[in-house]
Amino acid sequence: MRLIARIIFAVNCIYQLVVGAIFLVAPVFSIHLYGFPPSDGQSMAAHVGVRMMGVFLLLVAVISAMIAINPDKNPVLLPLMGLTALLTIVCWVLTLATHEMILSQVTLDLAVQVLILAAVVGYARKAGKLAC
Questions:
Q1: The pTM is what?
Q2: pLDDT of 78-97, one tens digit each?
Q3: Rounded to whole angstroms, how far apart are CA atoms 88 and 111?
Q4: Is 54 exposed, middle or buried (0-12, 13-18, 19+ CB in 10 A)?
């Protein structure tokens, strides 16, 4: 399970790094990528929000890289990423429930978050760090 968790976190690192960089340097493209109307691409608040999200995603990429290198070295990072994944899933479910976005817009990120959560729970069980 350790190898699977390392692979999932390495893939997550690359995914978050690419998406975070795009969000940070190209907010108009990011807004268009998620299917929002062109008027949102002209909103200063949307640009700031997207860039802040990019910074958050780059931080997640760094944490994922640290976990992929050695999941046991920083034991607090694994549950932290599990919590982040769970909160992101809750966010996407609420967003979908309010019809602000459609499933095809968030499917890739939702799938990545489910994989992260599965890796965290699976690795914690295997390592005996989760009482179930």
A1: 0.81
A2: 999 999 999 999 999 999 99
A3: 11
A4: buried
